[in-house]
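1st attempt posting a full record on here, be nice pls
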Amino acid sequence: MAVLSLPKWNMSIGTNQPLMIIAGINVIEDLELARLTARTLKDATKKLGLPYIFKASFDKANRSSIHSYRGPGLEAGLEILRAIKAEFDVPICTDIHEIDQAEAIASVADLVQIPAFLCRQTDLVIATAKATQAAGGLLHVKKGQFLAPWDCRNILDKIKEAVGVDMTILCERGASFGYNNLVVDMLGIEEMQNLGAPVTMDATHAVQLPGANPKSNGASTGGRRSGVPILAKAAVAAGVDGVFLEFHPDPDRALCDGPSCLPLDSAKDLLKTLQAIHAVR
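the predicted structure (as tokens):
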């Protein structure tokens, strides 16, 4: 399996590398929330000696309802991410949704994320790969809920053919399992690693119940927050190279996907446990 690096940050992911932590907030609500989350997670990962990338979305384009909160948008969102990057000296991960966003996002984000529902959009994937490689970053591609692990070979092949190098981290986030439910097959982690890419586990979105939040009568996504630590720990034990987690100081008041995110004050203990499991494995 390949080892991928962000030389600017002295950070690598893959075989025999430290467990990478990609964590933050689901979507930017304001600068102060982003600052609080980045400070808390940077402190926790620094004490544990874990490589850390701050994650926040500037737009949540895939929403159940047109009335769902989406975020501040590209311009305002990237301004906040630049501020977080400068203040806390951390690499940034954020999503891309449209081809013409590629260069602007790659100029700020060190890890550019392709959302699960867009992982087979060839023009978007290739444009993002080219812009990200030119800026010295890496791609984080969420495996679509509709794909088998081995189907990710086509994603890796098209990216390498477009840019000539391996630069892709694959992300497991569950597969559709009937209506309003997802299930995670831990055997898929090794299957994707066997394709030659490092693999992360998005334990946050894997506990979603799509379109099944009773508080909104199905106009937003539900979730099983208590399952996030279970999936994260299981994935690390199964050999995953990194974990993707979302936190909020008050998850029940989060503007987006609150049922699936963890309380921010739980981060330190969970990360310590994940590091211990990784060391034993």
